[in-house]
Every structure is written in structure tokens, then in C-alpha cells.
Write a structure and sequence with these properties.
The complex is a heterodimer. In chain A, helix 9 runs antiparallel to helix 13 and helix 12 packs parallel to helix 16. The two termini of chain A are 19 Å apart. Chain A folds into 3 domains: 232 residues, no CATH class; 96 residues, abc type-2 transporter like domain (abc type-2 transporter like fold), CATH 3.40.1710; 49 residues. In chain A, the strands form 3 sheets. Chain A has a 4-stranded mixed beta sheet with strand order 4-1-5-6, sandwiched between helices. Chain A is of the alpha/beta class. Chain A contains 16 helices and 8 strands. Helix content of chain A is 68%, strand content 8%. By secondary structure, chain B is an alpha/beta fold. Chain B has 2 domains: 165 residues, P-loop containing nucleotide triphosphate hydrolases (Rossmann fold, 3-Layer(aba) Sandwich); 63 residues, no CATH class. Chain B is built from 8 helices and 9 strands. In chain B, the strands form 2 sheets. Chain B has a 6-stranded mixed beta sheet with strand order 5-6-7-3-8-9, with helices on both faces. Classes of the chains: A alpha/beta, B alpha/beta. The interface between A and B is medium-sized, with 17 and 22 residues. The complex binds adenosine-5'-diphosphate (ADP) and magnesium ion. Adenosine-5'-diphosphate (ADP) binds next to helix 1 of chain B.
Chain lengths: 443, 240
């Protein structure tokens, strides 16, 4: 078997195109995924026309002064702001594609916010040529305007609450540099209650009504506090994960990238090298007393598994540059990769045994691998329960699903079910038998 | 018809071989024997059962009936299509199979084979770059690695040009001279006539003639010039 392994490695070494593909393909995938995960979407360039004079950035609400520009910076954080001087310039930049969109903040926004008579409006210009970009701009700006709205509402509510408090409890009130003392409902009630006994019976009864009103008003307005607070954030969202792990998306994407690469490299190598024996007519010569068919199958499984283990390990090291991977778990990476590679290799050998030449074997491997990966990633709930059951049953026949589970364990510390290990081991055994039978049948 | 009745000791004997593929017989009671240094040609039209016969003698296929005796010796087998790794060099192919054959004098055996096949100067060329004739010689050299006393060759000269054919036969005849029994299949009458001591004719899974080339010519009738035509009508008379 040693000599056959050496022979196959020599042949691989002399097939630079194939090896290049087998190595470059996973590296390209891991770079793409790594890059996508680490960068996130770029901040879109957005032209900003701010017509509000710097002096009116502040609005006065009673005694409070709110700096509106503070809320616009929140929006600026989410985009790459490009200041422009005029509406024409903004339009031109959007049209030419220099920016994704333009945001026009009109001069009257602060006065409108202050009076509250008509809603303050900002204007967004964007190029809808590319629907994806358009949707992106719409979503980003909508989200940011909502955030700004929320922040403003909270500020305004705060002011309103202060007013209410002043009316209920009384206190000092600043208005244009002058300070007033506001009596407040509570103190009004106290004063009235104090003078009530000194009044005539008729007067006392009327004052009693005022006292009662002051009491009821005070109590109810105090309750309004809560109502107003909840107004500023009408719905709060609390999320609870009910099913599935807490593996962050990026780490799961790494597991998928590795599983996909492992699948392709292993399937192609195992099926290709076995099919090559027949393409070169060497199979009959080898199995004529030189090598037992099962030893030949084992050799291909070992070859494919070892090569793909090396490639995917390299890939993991490369990906670790982009996403945080715990190198301390490396032994677990190797264990998971080795078991999964063995399962895919056994499957590849079964495919190789069904075909007579490398081309057919590769084609078959590709044709089967793509739907497997696709099926394994169909989430429950995306299809009807009956169909999902069927998909689960089909998935159980292929190593992709348990490979993902094993990799999630190795990479992200997700719990590893003994069933996963048993599943992969069972697939190794089952596909080896299929390969052996197929060789006898088609050899 | 049975190929028997020789007194010399044989290195290969098979009796009453039968092989069915579904409802059709590929071999129907064929017997064959070969003595050391003997050159036996198995001729017959395509589909007659030549490859099936050689595969059974080589132990690649099992007969449905009959038996093969090789006296415990390994039989060298050279398949019709070269069974070589195109990406490996001539020497690497020989070395690999010498190792798999369990030879412990690997390098010596490889050198001897390169020498016998006159391929010393092509030893480091990838097999994929060799001419058909040279590739077939490597193919045969691999069949000889175990130094078998019987060598089975399945249409060794098919797809070779006349000059390559000549050189290939020099190589094969030299082997027989050294005592190897050579059994080869061919559908080329002149190759049987020129190079064999004995000729077996297979037609539709049956052995229809066994004898020397001269006896075959006699049975067929007509000179060698019209031999092909006469042979076809000879088969026709026998009901094939
Ligand atoms: N593996 C096989 N399966 C089915 N039929 C076969 C197989 N091998 C050979 N045959 C049939 O057996 C007959 C003899 O074939 P073969 O021995 O290859 O003939 P030859 O070598 O003389 O051309 C043919 O009819 C062929 O179609
Ligand atoms: Mg044939």
C-alpha cells in the first residue's frame, strides 16, 4: 500500500493543474469568506448637504436646549459622509455614482422641530439603477432616521416630564434668562388646605373642591410619567434563543467553508485516483494478486483523507487571520477533519468505483456534492415539515451534515453528540462496502 | 476439437473452459496447453472469445466450468490496452510493479527489463510521451517482472505500425528463445503464421482448429496470398 500511496502522490505532483485547483479552490473560498466576514459591508458614501446654519443647531424647548447636530452625527457614523455645498452638487454626485445617496437637511428643520407644528423633514436622493444598492441605501437611512427619531423623542419626552414634574411639585423655571418660581399642584393643595379652616363654610366648600382637584390632578399627572416614558420606546424587543447553539454567524460560516472545501477536495481526490486505476487499465493488473481490492480502496481513502486534511488545516490557519480561532483547539480540529475526511473519502471511493474514468468520476462527484451541501443547509421551517423530514432522511445518507456538526464542535466548542461521531463512522463503513461491491460489479 | 496429444511437459494446461455472459457463451469447452519456449497463437475474429480465454488463463476471470493448471507458477499477463501510469516514467512504472510483485532485487530487475525491452534510453521519459510500440514494450516488460514461465499477450501488436510490429516481435521471440512459453491472441493471420509453433482457432466461443501453421494452411487450402479469404470460407464451412 505504501508503494501505491507513493505512486499516487507522484502522479498528483505531476498534475499541477489538478493540484492547483484542489489547493487554490479552498484557499480562494476561505479568503473570500474571511474577507467578507472581517470587513462587513463598506460604509456607503453619502453626500450631505446641511443647510442648517451652525447658529441654529440648537433648539430651545422651554428651559432645555437640545443640540440637534448631536443626532445627525449618529447618522454620519453609519456612512462615509461627503459634504457638499448645494443641492445641484448633491444631485450630480448621486447621478455620477460618486456617492450612493445624498441627504439634504433643510434650514428650517430646527424651527420645525422646535414648534412642532409641521413635521421636520429630511430629503434623501438616491440612484435606483442598481436595486441592491437602492435597497441598501433605503434600509440604512431608514434605520438611521429611526434611531435619530427615537433619540429626539427621548429628549423631548425628558423635557415634557420635567415640565410635568414642575407642575406637580413646583420649583424653579428658567425662561430667557429669567427665573420664575412655579408653585406646583402639591404646594397649592397645601396652601389651600392651610387657609380652608379660616374660611366661611360656603367658601370652604368651594376651596375644598379646588383642593380635591389639585390632589387628583397631582396624583394622575404623576402617573403620566410612566405613560410618557413608555411612549418614547413603545416596543422593546427581547430575544431568547430557543433552539440551536449560540455560535456566531461568522464562526459558523467558517465551518461551512471548511466543510464545503473538505467535501470537494476529498470526493474529487478519492473518486479521481480510484477511477484513474481503471482509466489507465491498471486495475486488473493490480488486483491480479498484487493488491487486494479492499487494500486498493483503503489506499485511496487514506490518500484522499490525508491530502484534504492537510489542505483544510492550511485553510483554517489562513482563516484564523480573519476570524478569531482558538489555536488551543487544534487537536480537535484535526480529529474532526480526519473523521469527516474519512467519511467523504469512503464516499468518493464509492463514486470512483462506479465510474471508469477520471472525468466521469469528477463530474459525478461535483453533481452529487453540490446538492448535498445545499440540502444540508436548508433550515427547518423554510419548507413544509413533510419535505423537511424527507430532506433530513436524505441528508443522513451523506457526510455533510455530521461534518458541519463535528466542525462546529471543533471550531466553536459546540457540544458534540456521540451520535455525530457514530454517524460519520457508520458512513465510512457503509460507503466502503458500497465501493467494494461496486468494484466487484463493475471491475 | 481439443488441443492435446503432446508429449512434452507443459507449463500451462486448461481443460473444458466454459464462460457465460448472460445467455451467451464467450467460451464453450475450450482446452489449451503450452510447453516451455512454445509460441501459441490464438486466432479468431473479434468477439470469438480470445480475450476471455486469456483472462481466464491469467486468473482475472473465473470460468463457469473447466480448470486451469499452472503448476503453482505465476503467469505473466499483458492486457490488450497498456496498463501503465502515463504520468510516471518508464523506470518508475517498472519499479512500482516490481515492488508490488514483491521482488527484493528491484533495481536489478528494472535494469534487466529496460535492457531486454531496449528502452534504456527512454527510462526517464513519462510513459504518456512514448510511441505506441514503446508503450507496448513497457507493458510487456511489466508482464515479465515476475519472470513467469508463461506469458499471455492479448493482441500485443494491434495499433502498431509495421516497423514497431517487427521490433516488438523480435522482443517476444527472444523471450521464447529463453524458454518462456508465449501464448498470444491475434486476429492477424499472418502474425499467427509467421511467429507461432502452434495455432488455435477460436470462432463463436468454440475451438475449431488446433495444429501447426502448416497444418492450418493445409486445412484452409489456398496460398498465403488468398489466405484471409480462404480462412473466412474455411470458418464458413465449419458453420461459423
Ligand atoms: N464482461 C463482459 N460482459 C458481457 N459480455 C462479454 C464480456 N466480455 C466479453 N463478452 C462477450 O463475450 C464474447 C467474447 O468476447 P472477447 O473474449 O472479448 O472476444 P475477442 O477478444 O475474441 O474479441 C463477445 O461476444 C463479447 O461481447
Ligand atoms: Mg479481445
Amino acid at each position: 500500500m505504501r508503494w501505491l500511496l507513493l505512486k499516487d502522490l507522484t502522479i498528483l505532483r505531476r498534475s499541477p493543474l489538478l493540484v492547483g485547483l484542489l489547493v487554490i479552490y479552498p484557499i480562494a473560498i476561505s479568503c473570500l469568506i474571511g474577507f467578507a466576514l472581517s470587513r462587513g459591508p463598506d460604509k456607503p458614501a453619502v453626500a450631505i448637504l446641511n443647510e442648517v446654519p451652525a447658529s441654529s443647531n440648537e433648539i430651545a424647548l422651554g428651559s432645555e436646549r437640545i443640540d440637534v447636530s448631536q443626532y445627525s452625527t449618529e447618522l454620519y457614523d453609519a456612512v462615509d459622509p461627503v459634504p457638499v455645498e448645494s443641492r445641484a452638487e448633491a444631485e450630480e454626485k448621486v447621478r455620477s455614482g460618486a456617492v450612493l445617496a445624498a441627504l439634504i437637511i433643510p434650514a428650517d428643520i430646527t424651527s420645525k422641530l422646535q414648534t412642532g407644528l409641521s413635521p421636520a423633514t429630511v430629503e434623501v436622493l438616491y440612484n435606483a439603477e442598481d436595486p441592491v444598492k437602492a435597497a441598501f441605501v433605503q434600509d440604512t437611512i431608514k434605520a438611521q432616521v429611526q434611531d435619530a427619531n427615537l433619540a429626539l423623542t427621548q429628549a423631548l419626552t425628558g423635557v415634557a416630564l420635567d415640565y410635568l414634574d414642575l407642575i406637580v411639585s413646583g420649583g424653579e423655571f428658567d425662561l430667557i434668562g429669567q427665573t420664575f418660581d412655579v408653585l406646583g399642584l402639591e404646594r397649592s393643595q397645601e396652601i389651600l388646605e392651610a387657609i380652608s379652616p379660616r374660611l366661611s363654610a360656603a367658601d370652604s366648600a368651594e376651596v375644598g373642591e379646588v383642593i380635591e382637584f389639585a390632589g387628583v390632578a397631582g396624583d394622575n399627572l404623576a402617573l403620566a410619567d410612566n405613560a410618557l416614558s413608555s411612549l418614547s420606546a413603545p416596543i422593546r424587543v427581547e430575544t431568547t434563543v430557543v433552539e440551536g447553539g449560540r455560535t456566531p454567524l461568522s464562526s459558523f460560516a467558517v465551518a461551512i467553508a471548511i466543510a464545503v472545501s473538505l467535501m470537494f477536495v476529498t470526493l474529487l481526490l478519492a473518486s479521481g485516483t480510484l477511477a484513474l486505476e481503471r482509466e489507465e487499465n491498471a486495475y486488473a493488473r493490480l488486483t491480479r494478486g498484487l493488491v487486494a481490492p479492499s487494500a486498493l480502496l483503503t489506499e485511496k481513502v487514506v490518500l484522499a483523507a490525508v491530502c484534504s486534511l492537510a489542505v483544510t488545516l492550511l485553510m483554517l490557519v489562513g482563516l484564523a487571520l480573519f476570524v478569531g480561532l482558538e489555536f488551543g483547539r487544534a487537536p480537535m480540529w484535526i480529529a474532526a477533519l480526519a473523521l469527516a475526511a474519512a467519511a467523504f473519502a469512503a464516499m468518493g471511493v464509492a463514486l470512483g468505483a462506479l465510474t471508469r474514468d477520471v472525468r466521469a468520476a469528477s463530474l459525478l462527484a461535483f453533481m452529487i456534492a453540490l446538492p448535498i451541501a445545499f440540502l444540508a443547509l436548508v433550515p427547518s421551517g423554510a419548507v413544509s415539515p413533510g419535505l423537511f423530514g424527507a430532506i433530513t432522511a436524505v441528508n443522513a445518507l451523506f457526510p455533510f451534515g455530521p461534518t458541519l456538526d463535528a466542525l462546529d464542535w471543533a471550531l466553536n466548542g459546540a457540544p458534540l453528540a456521540l451520535l455525530t461521531v457514530a454517524h460519520l463512522a457508520a458512513l465510512v463503513a457503509a460507503y466502503s462496502v458500497v465501493g467494494r461491491v461496486a468494484l466487484r460489479r463493475f471491475g | 476439437m481439443i488441443d492435446e496429444g503432446r508429449s512434452r511437459p507443459t507449463v500451462l494446461e486448461a481443460h473444458g473452459l466454459v464462460k457465460w455472459f448472460g445467455p451467451r457463451a464467450a467460451l464453450d469447452g475450450v482446452s489449451i496447453a503450452a510447453a516451455p519456449g512454445e509460441r501459441v497463437a490464438v486466432i479468431g475474429p473479434n468477439g470469438a472469445g480470445k480475450t476471455t480465454l486469456l483472462s481466464i488463463l491469467a486468473g482475472i476471470q473465473r470460468p463457469d466450468a473447466g480448470n486451469v493448471e499452472t503448476g503453482g507458477q505465476r503467469v505473466g499477463w499483458v492486457p490488450q490496452q497498456a496498463a501503465l501510469y502515463g504520468k510516471l516514467t518508464v523506470a518508475e512504472n517498472l519499479r512500482l510493479f516490481a515492488r508490488l510483485e514483491g521482488r527484493d532485487d528491484v533495481e536489478q530487475v528494472v535494469e534487466r527489463m529496460l535492457d531486454q525491452a531496449a528502452l534504456g534510453d527512454r527510462r526517464d521519459d513519462p510513459v504518456a510521451e512514448l510511441s505506441g510500440g514503446n508503450r507496448q514494450r513497457v507493458n510487456i516488460a511489466i508482464g515479465l517482472l515476475a519472470e513467469p514461465r508463461v506469458l499471455l499477450l492479448d493482441e500485443p501488436s494491434a495499433s502498431l505500425d509495421p516497423r514497431q510490429r517487427e521490433r516488438l516481435w523480435e522482443f517476444i521471440l527472444a523471450l521464447a528463445e529463453r524458454g518462456t512459453a508465449v501464448v498470444y491472441a491475434t486476429h492477424d493471420l499472418s502474425e499467427a503464421d509467421r511467429h507461432a509453433n502452434r495455432v488455435l482457432v477460436l470462432a463463436d466461443a468454440e475451438l475449431v482448429f488446433a495444429g501447426t501453421p502448416a497444418e492450418l494452411e493445409q486445412a484452409v487450402g489456398g496460398g498465403l496470398r488468398d489466405f484471409e479469404t480462404s480462412f473466412v470460407s474455411f470458418l464458413g464451412q465449419l458453420g461459423h
